[in-house]
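Consider the subject:
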Amino acid sequence: KVPVHIEHYSNPQAVAREKGKLIENLPAKGFAILNCDDEIVWSLKNKTRAHVISYGFKEDSDIQILGLEYKVNKDGFPEGMSFKIQYGNILVPFRLNNTLGKPQVYAAAAAASVGITFGINLVKISEALEKYQPIEHRMNVKKGIKNTVVLDDCYNASPLSMNAALETFKEIPAKRRVAVLGDMLELGDYTIEMHKEIGKKVIGIVDLLICVGTAAKLIAESAIKHGFDKSKVIIFNNSESASKMIRKEIKEGDLILIKGSRAIKLEEVVKEISWEYNLTS
């Protein structure tokens, strides 16, 4: 697993050690709320004097996530997700609207864990999270032109988040899946390897691959090398050129994932095809 910002560290373990200092410095009366589904995060439990609370999908989690389902309306538009959280003998349904993906569920479970730690009723936590509005460009579900659905996840990108986005992408029903993928920055020596890995990942998930940026070309090249149809791959040097051509490439009913690092500015592509920016389309 290669985390974001690894360019500034020697390896993934060095990033974990740096973040682990937060856990190490907790007081004995404090709480370390850790994702037990993540091996690196969970290993930090041995480096703290604080009381450890685990959350995740695993059965032995203190706070367990159950029954994740994506909600699609009768018109085929993904409206959000439902799941349950169990704490002891208490099982409460949760709903997150206008967003998709396990990373959002983990964030909700982490928030719920904090609330439980401070004595907040789990039902009250569920009611509060149902009002949650996702941060702009963080896996927002948007109506697109030509009756498309846009998964706007263009705020940033790392190998972990790119993989997670593609995993979510394949779970949503669609006539055709179009992925607009930009460079993943700040990867240092891992840049080439990780972009090639994403190229392999898209196979069997994506129907039309649009790559934006210098490093993203490696995604395209790797996908083709591993059997992706070359005629279904388009490469652009930057978001400006991609946004000028994107309308011609999408079709009625497409599901479109847009994801890349902040500096690639893929929000320009989002603006070009999202209904909210094209009210006359």
In short: The mean pLDDT is 94.
